[in-house]
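User: structure tokens for this one?
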Amino acid sequence: MVGNEQDRSQRRIVEEIRSLVKRYFSSSEEGTMEFIPGQTEIPLAVPPYGWEEVSDAIDTMLSRWVVMGKKTSAFERLFAEYIGVKYAVMVNSGSSANLLAMSVLTNPALKSKMKFGDEVITPAMTWATTVFPIINVGATPVLVDSDLGTYNISTTEIEKAITKKTRGIMPVHLLGHPCDMKRIMEISEEHDLFVVEDTCEAHGAECSGKKAGSYGDMATFSFYPSHHITTMEGGILVTDNDEYFEVSKVLRSNGWISDLKAKDEIIKMYPHIDSRYLFVNLGFNIRPTDVQGAFGIHQIRKLDVFIRIRRENARYWNNRLDEYSEYLILPEEREECKHVYFGYPITIRPSAPFSRSELTAYLAEKGIATRPLMAGNMAEQPVMLTGLVKYRKVGNLKNAKIAMHNSFFWGNHQAIDEPRREYIADCVTDFIESKLG
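Assistant:
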């Protein structure tokens, strides 16, 4: 009887906590609805979670099972189904997912793998955590240019970059626009190359009804708070390949057998070793927690709603700013593609009568946060210029250089409503008109 009463008491407490969390988020949302132009800040991102995620995270912590477990597995299944692939392996960040993908392709256990010094083609216009994992596994990044407008890797430049050392391509669906994966996959088949899609900024992007992240040998996603959906920190690797799936699971857990399909058979092979501490490969500790898995279960169900808001905002800004296309390069959406707009990017044409710094400073005065276009041109970053790492670049990277100094983006997320998006457009047009006057 005492045990039953204690259980009932704990359940009542849990329900009270859930009710309070729901009330907290309701009052918080009501308090942030009012927008006062020029006074209310418009941040680059607003983490897109609500009371359901927090409540489930608390439930997870109260259960005392906080390490990777059933909720992580449930989220992995949901995410794989959403992308249209067989498998998903959750990790602690998007950059870890990139490291995991490259580590799988160079793992000694693979029959066909990349070797030390092999080259991987990737865009110069990207984030550092695309390039560094290539270097971390002993491969050489080959930086090529991207197209302005889509900000995607140029397939023409990919072809120019291929040599006898080329073993892989790592395209980046930068800022939410899917790369020309049909052509990239054709190139990879022609030259027998691995393809890893960095999809960390393009959750739900599509071409011809096929999701970005479902084309290559593997793909990666990030769930950082500024992304389309979040698990606080977190990332995921997806694949259709059975071998890559098994190797990725063991690599994320220190080379441990715990998640392997062949776990029981391996245990029988080594009866003299305690099966609880049996290691069969190299590895890292890049596992997520079940708290992150709990977040993901709720977040994936909200993703399409968030994408619709981002696309509506971008459509509005494209229409409002199109008259200034003489001075601005606005984001493009290729035919049959679905852009999901991680942010809203703009490039100031070199011939414009104003600079990026002038416009972004003006927007900052008006309370609108902006950022440069990721790392800009990675070839101009000190880590590359000082010779600290080995890399190769192809061509003069003209567009990446322009992006480094002329491109930026502002926030485009689920908290940007009609008054906010109109205010942003008004500020940009007011600035340009003042320069043209």
